């Protein structure tokens, strides 16, 4: 029999430095999405936004706080510069920052997404507000250096907050290079990413050996395997976790078309399936932030809403996993 354990999460008004109070208990018994019974939660606080407080989680290596809802650029930001879709992204990014968002994840592998994001961040004071995460995705040191120079040009910046090795590609070369850039102040944090279950074992092995600041991994109601290994390991090691593909690249929306939310959703203030899928991701105590991609302002607002209110109980997480198995 597995141990039952309640995870007490604390909330505070981060900007105002107001008093601490209990926020949510995330507890339950074992399941396919089993979480480490010995794990303790990432510290969770909240920062004021127009709609109230967005939940925040601490990056274990520094204690820096990040809003739990971030954004990705894959697909959704790969649009022609100056197009109507690009104009729509101006609204999307404004909704994101004004709604309390801060973390953007991108990659030189996403065609022109870096160029689009760089131009958008340049239109306001967004770059200063943004926790910008990008990646190294090359095979040789020479190619990585050229790619990093190009990333800075496209993103219109001389530094990023997080530099990740994309899908562990040539990680024996990329990780030392990322560490050098960190020592030079070109990135504040370094990380490793993967996006499918077959990469989890390598991701965990390399994380244990190298102890990066961050990992990024896929985790969703229909792909909860990370909760068996990678997420508890990250928690044990004090490594921050970004969750990608929380909507399974959008495929989950086709599955829930015409399907009602569970009866308990309203009690938690969950008003859409997007919010439900994102709440599932951030309810694992190892998770620092989830990075859903959207190019649409109304969907961006919908996604941000998941960063508010109570987390899912362990029983609710199990119910969702069973529903999409
Ligand atoms: N190996 C890696 O490092 C790796 C791999 C995969 C992903 N990632 C990162 O993780 C991010 C997220 O993953 P992802 O983009 O693959 O997939 P995802 O976030 O699971 O799904 C994105 C899809 O969901 C749609 N969507 C977003 N919000 C919605 C909403 N509220 N309602 C309905 N549909 C919505 C988007 O379409 P619209 O744009 O039309 O709204 C898009 O088609 C990526 O952008 C990337 O930054 C990294």
From TrEMBL:
What name does this protein carry? Aldo/keto reductase
The cross-references to InterPro entries, in alphabetical order and at most eight, read: AKR2_Oxidoreductase (IPR053135), NAD(P)_OxRdtase_dom_sf (IPR036812), NADP_OxRdtase_dom (IPR023210), TAT_signal (IPR006311)
Key words, A-Z: Signal
* One Pfam entry name: Aldo_ket_red
Q: Where is the signal peptide?
A: 1-32
Coiled-coil residues: none
| Organism name | Luteimonas yindakuii
Ranges of residues in domain NADP-dependent oxidoreductase: 70-314
